[in-house]
Amino acid sequence: MTDEVVSDLNQVLQEFEEVSDASSDIDDNPSIDEDPTEWHIIGGFSNQLSRQLGSNSLQNSALKKLRSHKSLPAKSKPLNVIFVDHRRSNCFFLPRDQGDCGSCYAFAFVAALEWLHCKETGKLTPFSEQYIIDCGSRAGLNGCSGGDILLTGKFAHDFGLELLDNYPYKEREDECPYEESTEASAMGYMRVHLEDVVRIRFELLEKYVKFSPMLVGISTSLEFDEYGGGVHSGSDCSKEEDHVMLLIGHGREDGKDYWLLRNSHSVDWGEEGYYKLDKKAGCIRTHGYMFGTSNGKKTRISAKQNEKNNRKIIERRYKEFLLRTTSVANDG
Description:
The protein has helices at about 5-20, 20-25, 105-120, 130-135, 150-160, 205-210, 305-330, and strands at about 40, 45, 80-85, 190-195, 195-200, 215-220, 230, 245-255, 255-260, 275-280, 285-290, 300-305. The longest helix has 25 residues, at about 305-330. The N and C termini lie far apart (about 45 Å). It is about 25% helix and about 20% strand.
């Protein structure tokens, strides 16, 4: 796989350098006392419980068949404009469904990495959310009870990724297929060379989303589950962030400016799995997170040298899981 730096991300970095007050705009190394309202996802939703991770904790860490989106035609109605829509890159699968597991953080994170990997290689490859759910406790994640975006980035950096075809979604937390004694470097089918998870202030989301999708925490409304399309007013957003989505663009429809977000409730929800949220709603309450680089190092995803050994471990554990499941079904 190519080691070329993603041109879009390079452009982001150039813009970072050009912003005169970049230190206040982009919090890529926040201190632990700087932001006591850092959100932490629980039960697929979140409370503002965890404090911002210190810079040292992420130093040098950055981060069968599914149909891809076809290029989307621009809206033809008056007052309708699509300013940014990353679906047009053809680097997203159709939105998958997290079901009853509180794993929105894993789904949003995986979708972002799939986009990044596709932009690097030209190949759309599905990664496993289940691997993050099952093994993420090693980085402080809580499986189906939620997880923090920065910790998810640390997990992917330290423990790699698995392919979806080899590690399918089960909608529940299960045993990690790697023994506790397994070295971090021996886990995961793919290595994630993620040098930074860059935090973007809310005021700058519109400026930087043109370069890359961003992970955001949102406050959902009472009508969120029933959303069926159009620009949602979000007038009754909850006071706390309780869901993670992927911000992939923004536009204007019927004269209303909106954020375009990717959800993890399948294509049957919203507009084929996507959500248009009125920018005036204020439902995105904190920073956005995007994959960046530091010190000129590359952000990329590559195959592991010991991938054959990993495949044997995963295949053996998955066969054992299937045997246990079959045995329980027969006993019943």
